[in-house]
User: Fold this.
Amino acid sequence: MATQQGSVRVCKDCHTVTFQVVGWGRMHQSMPVRRLSEQFLAEGIASVQVDLRHCTYLDSTFLGTLLTLKRASKKCRQAQFVLVSPSPECCRLFKQMGVEDCLPAITAPEPAGDWTELPCEPEDVDTFNRNVIQAHQELANLGGPAGAAFQAVARCLEKDCQEK
Assistant:
């Protein structure tokens, strides 16, 4: 498993779904994580956890998708959303991006369970683009200097999609 490519594993018990990012969390992995989380939330799962202890990098789309999942968890029967044991690299990234106070985190032992690697099936271009735009809009909604920068990125992405 190449670290830069990264992978996402998933494990579900009766109350919690846990995703574990190994290596890099990137835009092509964000939609499968989002879809599966939203499916489990609709089925009544109580907690969505994203374990980042083995994560060395998150791109802006994956990071924005985490914010989307936090919001979706609150809407859906007040389910809990939490990051588990973010790596030092992730903590530095959260601080640089100004999201360290926006994403709740806990420290916990490595979860045991029946892990399945989440397939990163190609999305249709429209769904992929909408997810990338929405993730950047979530980052833009944070406000501050980073939010302003992501607002410009989101506008540019929207404009590109409309022109195609």
Q: What stands out?
A: The mean pLDDT is 89. The domain at 7-120 is CATH 3.30.750.24 (Transcription Regulator spoIIAA).
